[in-house]
Write a structure and sequence with these properties.
single chain, about 425 residues, alpha+beta, Tubby Protein, Chain A, 2 domains, 12-stranded antiparallel beta barrel, two-stranded antiparallel sheet, 11 helices, globular, Tubby-like_C
């Protein structure tokens, strides 16, 4: 039997198991309606035995056989939408999910995006991941897709991230989510935001997740303490104000003609990440549960947690680690002036076809004492450019993640009258 048919059969069985469990829950609710009795887990013994049989049929497969099956599926499905079969394997049961997570590698190792956490992990070192962004002017939304372009990918494009632009009195914010119809910070699909200053010359990328070197546990659950009222606001502030990067645009005081000059300081990535043998921080799971814990703790006392509105507060970046040589800094690559075309030009290798002030390429800016090779300094880490009306390409590589690259590109969409 082909692996696709095999996995398709598993997905059908999983859906059937979900229907059985839902019928059991509905029966339990009907039985308990109007009575103060303790109901059993399942009202029907036949349904209970059938559910156990269906679970054991796939959950009790030999680990060696299950590992071989998932490895074959993972190697055969290397692009979307066929790669959703790998995600389906992780949805069968806990044992399947555990082995699938062990088999699937990070984008840095394999160059593929599989699970949502892959959007927070560094990209591949050699070949960049090619994406494109669609801008919707009417709704002020931006969508990031995996693929070369809409013309080549069509309906087969994989949605990675979505952003919504919100103008405020003193700043502009881009809320970033995994879905296109919900940008609420209370939802687990919220991944972070980009915030500008009043002039639109400085931006901060705020991650919704706790930093990897935080004293809080990675599972997002706070340890119980005696004086929780004093600890929770401080912990929440650390999570809501995780400033992972700062983007600055140089002021054009003399109003001279020329491209924008931008500088990106990545507080969460050390300069040692691009040195020989260096590695970048790689999260392995989302740290959900902090907001829910806060809302539950304060609801009984009628108080609100102090993390809902941080638009007027200062977000300090992570403290630099002296052992890593400071944070990684990216500058835009200087273009050259083309005499015949009478414009500034950059070599985008065919990925950008329309001239725009938003086009840029970012390379590492390193000091001589930081021991970064010339090859690494010339390597384009992120490039962004226009290919059509409201359509832009975005190519990123290690040590940036898709979330960080998308947020940096979003800063180029905000109006900057003081920089042009």
């Amino acid at each position: 039997m082909p692996f696709r048919d095999f996995v398709r059969e598993l997905r059908g069985i999983r859906d059937g198991m979900g229907n059985i469990s839902r019928r059991g829950i509905d029966a339990k609710r009907n039985y308990c309606r109007g009575k103060s009795l303790i109901a059993p887990e399942l009202s029907s013994p036949a349904s209970s035995s059938l559910l156990v049989t269906e679970q054991s049929r796939w959950a009790n497969l030999p680990p060696e056989l299950l590992l071989d099956i998932i490895q074959r599926v993972e190697e055969s499905e290397t692009s979307w939408p066929a790669r959703r079969v790998v995600v389906a394997c992780a949805s069968v049961c806990r044992s399947w999910r555990k082995i699938t997570e062990e088999v699937v590698k990070t984008p840095e190792q394999c160059g593929w995006l599989t699970f949502p956490i892959s959007l927070k992990q560094p990209g591949p070192r050699e070949t960049p991941i090619q994406c494109f962004i669609k801008r919707e002017r009417a709704t002020s939304k931006y969508r990031l897709y995996l693929g070369l372009s809409p013309a080549l990918s069509g309906d087969m494009s994989k949605l990675l991230l979505a952003a919504k632009k919100i103008r405020r009195t003193t700043c502009t914010e881009f809320l970033i989510s995994l879905v296109t119809d919900d940008f609420s910070k209370a939802n687990n699909t919220y991944v972070g935001k980009l915030r500008s200053n009043f002039l639109g010359t400085k931006f901060m990328i705020l991650d919704s997740q706790l930093p990897l070197d935080s004293s809080l546990p990675l599972n997002g659950k706070l340890q119980p303490r005696i004086h929780s009222k004093q600890v929770l606001p401080k912990a929440a502030a650390a999570a809501a104000k995780n400033n992972v990067a700062t983007i600055s645009y140089e002021l054009n005081v003399l109003r001279t003609r020329g491209p924008r000059r931008m500088r990106c300081t990545l507080h969460s990535i050390p300069i040692s990440a691009i040195q020989e043998g260096g590695t970048a921080p790689t999260p392995l799971k989302f740290t959900y549960g902090l907001n829910e814990h806060l809302s539950t703790s304060y609801s009984s006392k009628g108080e609100k947690p102090g993390v809902e509105d941080d638009s007027n507060s200062d977000c300090k970046p992570l403290e630099p680690n002296h052992n890593t040589g400071g944070p990684l800094v990216l500058n835009n690559k200087a273009p050259r002036w083309h005499e015949q075309l009478q414009c500034w030009c950059l070599n985008f290798k065919g990925r950008v076809t329309v001239a725009s002030v938003k086009n840029f390429q970012l390379v590492a800016a390193a000091e001589p004492q930081q021991n970064v090779s010339a090859t690494e300094q010339d390597r384009v880490i992120l490039q962004f450019g226009k290919i059509g009306k409201d359509i832009f390409t975005m190519d990123y590589r290690y040590p940036l993640s898709a979330f960080q690259a998308f947020a940096i590109c979003l800063s180029s969409f905000d109006t900057k009258p003081a920089c042009e």
